[in-house]
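Title: Comparing notes on inverse folding

I've been comparing how different people in this forum approach sequence design from structure. To keep things fair, I'm posting one structure and asking everyone to reply with a full sequence. Here's the target:
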Protein backbone atom coordinates (compact mmCIF):
# COMPACT_ATOMS: atom_id res chain seq x y z
CA UNK A 1 0.00 0.00 0.00
CA UNK A 2 2.83 2.43 0.83
CA UNK A 3 4.36 1.86 -2.60
CA UNK A 4 1.12 2.95 -4.28
CA UNK A 5 0.69 6.00 -2.04
CA UNK A 6 4.24 7.18 -2.68
CA UNK A 7 3.80 6.65 -6.42
CA UNK A 8 0.44 8.44 -6.41
CA UNK A 9 1.91 11.43 -4.57
CA UNK A 10 4.87 11.58 -6.96
CA UNK A 11 2.63 11.45 -10.02
CA UNK A 12 0.14 13.95 -8.58
CA UNK A 13 2.90 16.50 -8.03
CA UNK A 14 4.51 15.79 -11.41
CA UNK A 15 1.28 16.26 -13.33
CA UNK A 16 -0.27 18.85 -11.03
CA UNK A 17 2.69 21.22 -11.25
CA UNK A 18 3.30 20.95 -14.99
CA UNK A 19 3.10 24.09 -17.11
CA UNK A 20 0.40 24.54 -19.72
CA UNK A 21 1.20 23.81 -23.37
CA UNK A 22 1.37 27.53 -24.18
CA UNK A 23 3.66 28.28 -21.26
CA UNK A 24 5.95 25.37 -22.13
CA UNK A 25 6.01 26.45 -25.79
CA UNK A 26 7.43 29.79 -24.61
CA UNK A 27 10.13 27.94 -22.69
CA UNK A 28 11.03 25.83 -25.72
CA UNK A 29 11.51 28.98 -27.84
CA UNK A 30 14.23 30.33 -25.55
CA UNK A 31 17.82 30.32 -26.74
CA UNK A 32 20.10 27.72 -25.21
CA UNK A 33 23.89 27.52 -24.90
CA UNK A 34 25.57 26.05 -27.98
CA UNK A 35 27.23 23.36 -25.85
CA UNK A 36 23.83 21.99 -24.72
CA UNK A 37 23.94 19.08 -27.16
CA UNK A 38 22.45 16.58 -24.69
CA UNK A 39 19.08 18.36 -24.40
CA UNK A 40 17.12 15.49 -26.06
CA UNK A 41 18.25 13.22 -23.20
CA UNK A 42 17.02 15.56 -20.45
CA UNK A 43 13.48 14.09 -20.19
CA UNK A 44 14.98 10.60 -19.81
CA UNK A 45 17.38 11.87 -17.16
CA UNK A 46 14.46 13.32 -15.19
CA UNK A 47 12.43 10.13 -15.49
CA UNK A 48 15.40 8.23 -14.05
CA UNK A 49 15.77 10.78 -11.25
CA UNK A 50 12.07 10.53 -10.37
CA UNK A 51 12.40 6.73 -10.32
CA UNK A 52 15.32 7.14 -7.91
CA UNK A 53 13.22 9.49 -5.72
CA UNK A 54 10.50 6.83 -5.65
CA UNK A 55 12.91 4.04 -4.76
CA UNK A 56 14.62 6.08 -2.07
CA UNK A 57 11.34 7.20 -0.49
CA UNK A 58 9.98 3.66 -0.51
CA UNK A 59 13.13 2.31 1.16
CA UNK A 60 13.02 5.08 3.77
CA UNK A 61 9.38 4.31 4.52
CA UNK A 62 10.17 0.62 4.91
CA UNK A 63 13.12 1.40 7.18
CA UNK A 64 11.59 4.15 9.29
CA UNK A 65 7.85 4.58 8.75
CA UNK A 66 8.49 8.30 9.20
CA UNK A 67 5.80 10.67 7.95
CA UNK A 68 8.22 13.55 8.51
CA UNK A 69 10.68 12.05 6.04
CA UNK A 70 7.85 11.38 3.57
CA UNK A 71 6.94 15.06 3.87
CA UNK A 72 10.57 15.96 3.18
CA UNK A 73 10.52 13.85 0.01
CA UNK A 74 7.24 15.46 -1.00
CA UNK A 75 8.74 18.93 -0.55
CA UNK A 76 11.74 17.91 -2.65
CA UNK A 77 9.51 16.74 -5.48
CA UNK A 78 7.46 19.94 -5.24
CA UNK A 79 10.61 22.07 -5.45
CA UNK A 80 11.95 20.07 -8.39
CA UNK A 81 8.69 20.10 -10.30
CA UNK A 82 8.11 23.80 -9.58
CA UNK A 83 11.26 24.71 -11.51
CA UNK A 84 9.74 24.54 -15.00
CA UNK A 85 6.30 25.70 -13.86
CA UNK A 86 7.76 28.78 -12.17
CA UNK A 87 9.94 29.65 -15.16
CA UNK A 88 7.07 29.22 -17.61
CA UNK A 89 4.43 31.07 -15.59
CA UNK A 90 6.65 33.93 -14.44
CA UNK A 91 8.69 34.08 -17.67
CA UNK A 92 11.70 34.46 -15.39
CA UNK A 93 14.77 32.28 -15.74
CA UNK A 94 16.20 33.99 -12.64
CA UNK A 95 13.41 32.51 -10.51
CA UNK A 96 14.10 29.12 -12.06
CA UNK A 97 17.77 29.40 -11.12
CA UNK A 98 16.80 30.26 -7.55
CA UNK A 99 14.34 27.38 -7.15
CA UNK A 100 16.81 25.01 -8.79
CA UNK A 101 19.38 25.94 -6.18
CA UNK A 102 16.81 25.71 -3.36
CA UNK A 103 15.86 22.22 -4.53
CA UNK A 104 19.49 21.14 -4.54
CA UNK A 105 20.03 22.46 -1.00
CA UNK A 106 16.88 20.66 0.20
CA UNK A 107 17.97 17.50 -1.61
CA UNK A 108 21.35 17.65 0.11
CA UNK A 109 19.70 18.11 3.51
CA UNK A 110 17.35 15.19 2.81
CA UNK A 111 20.26 13.01 1.75
CA UNK A 112 22.03 13.73 5.04
CA UNK A 113 18.80 13.08 6.99
CA UNK A 114 18.15 9.69 5.38
CA UNK A 115 21.75 8.47 5.24
CA UNK A 116 21.49 6.58 8.57
CA UNK A 117 18.75 4.37 7.07
CA UNK A 118 20.98 2.73 4.49
CA UNK A 119 23.48 3.15 1.72
CA UNK A 120 21.02 2.48 -1.12
CA UNK A 121 18.64 5.14 0.19
CA UNK A 122 21.07 8.02 -0.10
CA UNK A 123 22.76 6.64 -3.21
CA UNK A 124 19.38 6.86 -4.96
CA UNK A 125 19.39 10.61 -4.23
CA UNK A 126 22.88 11.05 -5.65
CA UNK A 127 21.78 11.29 -9.34
CA UNK A 128 19.64 14.30 -8.44
CA UNK A 129 22.42 15.92 -6.43
CA UNK A 130 24.77 15.51 -9.40
CA UNK A 131 22.27 16.55 -12.09
CA UNK A 132 20.59 19.48 -10.35
CA UNK A 133 23.67 21.76 -10.48
CA UNK A 134 23.91 21.05 -14.22
CA UNK A 135 20.29 22.11 -14.73
CA UNK A 136 20.76 25.19 -12.58
CA UNK A 137 23.91 26.12 -14.52
CA UNK A 138 22.09 25.68 -17.85
CA UNK A 139 19.28 27.93 -16.59
CA UNK A 140 21.81 30.52 -15.45
CA UNK A 141 23.47 30.42 -18.88
CA UNK A 142 20.05 30.73 -20.56
CA UNK A 143 19.43 33.89 -18.51
CA UNK A 144 22.44 35.46 -20.18
CA UNK A 145 21.19 34.47 -23.65
CA UNK A 146 17.55 35.53 -23.14
CA UNK A 147 17.58 38.94 -21.50
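Reply #1:
Here's my take.
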Amino acid sequence: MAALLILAALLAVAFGLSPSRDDFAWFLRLRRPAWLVFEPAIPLIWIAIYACFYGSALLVWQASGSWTLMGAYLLLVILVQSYTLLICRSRSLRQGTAIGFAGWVWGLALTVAVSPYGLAIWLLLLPYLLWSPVGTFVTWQMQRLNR
